[in-house]
Design a protein that fits this description.
heterodimer, A: mainly beta, Rieske Iron-sulfur Protein, 4-stranded antiparallel beta sheet, 11 strands, globular, B: alpha/beta, FAD/NAD(P)-binding domain, Enolase-like, domain 1, 5-stranded parallel beta sheet, 27 strands
């Protein structure tokens, strides 16, 4: 059953940045953009680069540094190739100074 | 549109992207993609890198999973060599005989490798790289081999040399120009690439060329014009390409070696389009250009699908590519370097983004080594022909996105 798992303190994920955490064996990136938190698979579906390592966040999208695949952080869908498969997204919330990912 | 037939010549990344985009845009007519290889469309960058080194299976290369094309109602005919695209009769004819009528056709035939024309070039063990079987042949030959010669230090030569070193072979490169990747990256950045390769133990002979290859049936040594004799177990030739324009030869469309299209990627014939490596296009920023890059294959494939459906939008992507060599990552935006280079980072430390301005101060291109973010951030500036402040370009603390007036 899905539950909220604490991955970090609120201050650990800064505006415009993404950070990766292991959540139930999955690599999950948590990003903050426009004061909103997003959680999604950290692994680009094109060539498995880590999106949190150099991925460029712009509004609700993140672009993989390796080969330019761009994903919606909200829905996981591909905005720009070469990737063709979406990334998984997760529920995320902030509570009592903690960031929690739903998994 | 259900009664219309679109034919894509070339089951390439460009062709595949165009087909997928056409379906994604609601095109419900007949969609046929013709390829002369036995494989469904695949990505080629890995052929000189992870796939060549045996670190990545072939399945990873495919643009879409098997079965996807069928699901989308896209007919793929493989090992079907097209002889001619007739823009007046609106038919495609096959080398093996037979023809196919079309309402609209896309030529996405790409390029082929230039052939080394010296004595001994037909010896066993003299290889080149474009397709999956070529990479397989190099990997097979490299297994158990100890010495390789790479002819040409363009991107394919440089990447193959790096991969062969990583597989443990001794590698010598023979390059006609004065430094690595001279024509694309110029002497200063080419020098950095040269040093990276030398640090990894590659021997490089610049301003030299292959005179002949010798061996009893299989290649044993390379003799250069300057008189060097290099013993080797295999030779990989990467001396440039020629666009596959034959299917439209004689139509008066040739320019810069490729097939001439306008800014929308349409040829002089209203129902025939060209895209990808083969397409010489009118670019709103760069003028008449033809580029051979992975990203361009995708972007042009997407764009030409729109054009085939009637859009008149110009293709204005600023062009971008990358190259991985050892643990260095090279990226470039734009198509041509200018003389005026502004540097962020350090050439000596081999970590930089170099910006190239024209005489009016407009950003035309950029090249990075292990500094990819600023190439990406430069692309909108190049597309909009922005003349950025030089001090801002030099200062790594300045976010290039703030230099884009469209975002300010």
């Amino acid at each position: 059953m899905a539950e909220f798992i604490t991955v970090a303190a609120t201050g650990d994920v800064e505006e415009g940045a993404a950070k990766a955490f292991e959540v139930k064996g999955a690599e999950v990136a948590v990003a903050r953009s426009g004061a909103t938190l997003y959680a999604f698979s950290d692994i680009c579906t094109h060539r498995h680069c880590n999106l949190s390592m150099g991925g460029e966040i712009d509004g609700t999208t993140i672009q993989c540094e390796c080969h330019g695949s761009m994903f919606s952080m909200e829905t996981g869908e591909v905005i720009e190739g070469p990737a063709t498969e979406p990334i998984k997204t997760y529920g995320v919330r902030e509570q009592d100074g903690q960031i929690q990912v739903e998994a | 549109m259900a009664d219309r037939t679109f034919v894509i010549v070339g089951a390439s990344l460009t062709g595949a992207t165009a087909a997928a985009t056409l379906r994604g845009s609601g095109f419900d007519g007949r969609l046929i993609m013709l390829g002369d290889e036995p494989h469904a469309p695949y990505e080629r960058p890995g052929l000189s890198k992870a796939y060549l080194r045996g670190e990545e299976p072939a399945e990873e290369l495919f643009v879409r999973p098997p079965g996807w094309w069928d699901e989308q109602g896209i007919e793929i005919r493989l090992e079907a060599t097209v002889e001619r695209v007739d823009p007046r009769e609106m038919t495609v004819t096959f080398r093996a005989g037979g023809s196919l009528p079309f309402d609209s056709a896309l030529v996405a035939t790409g390029v082929r490798n230039r052939v080394l024309d010296v004595p001994g070039a037909d010896l066993d063990g003299v290889l080149q790289l474009r397709r999956i079987p070529d990479a397989d042949a190099i990997r097979d030959r490299a297994r158990g081999a100890s010495r390789a010669v790479v002819v040409g230090m363009g991107f394919i030569g440089a990447e193959v040399a790096a991969s062969l070193r990583q597989l443990g072979l001794e590698v010598t490169i023979v390059e006609i120009f004065e430094t690595a990747l001279f024509r694309v990256l110029g002497a200063r950045i080419g020098k950095v690439l040269e040093l990276i390769h030398r640090d990894h133990g590659v021997e490089i002979l610049f301003e030299d060329n292959v005179e002949r290859l010798e061996g009893a049936g299989r290649v044993e040594r390379v003799i250069t014009q300057r008189g060097r004799s290099i013993e080797c177990d295999l030779v990989v030739v990467g001396i440039g390409t020629e666009p596959n324009v034959d299917v439209m030869a004689g139509e008066g469309l040739d320019e810069l070696g490729g097939i001439r299209v306008d800014a929308t990627l349409r040829t002089a014939f209203p129902n025939v389009f060209a895209a990808g490596d083969v397409a010489t296009h009118d670019h709103p920023v760069f003028g008449t250009v033809r580029v051979e890059h992975f990203d361009n294959a995708i972007k042009m494939g997407e764009h030409v699908a729109g054009a085939m459906l009637g859009s008149d939008d110009p293709f204005d992507d600023p062009h971008w590519f990358w190259s991985d060599q050892y643990d260095s990552e090279i990226q470039m935006g734009g198509v041509r370097l200018t003389d005026d280079m502004v540097l962020r980072g350090s050439l000596e430390e081999r970590r930089f983004c170099a910006f190239f301005l024209d005489p009016a101060g407009v950003l035309r291109a950029c090249v990075s080594i292990d500094w990819p973010r600023d190439v990406r951030r430069s692309l909108p500036l190049i597309r909009r022909a922005v003349a950025p402040d030089r001090a801002a370009l030099i200062d790594p603390a300045v976010d290039l996105r703030t230099l884009d007036p469209a975002r300010a």
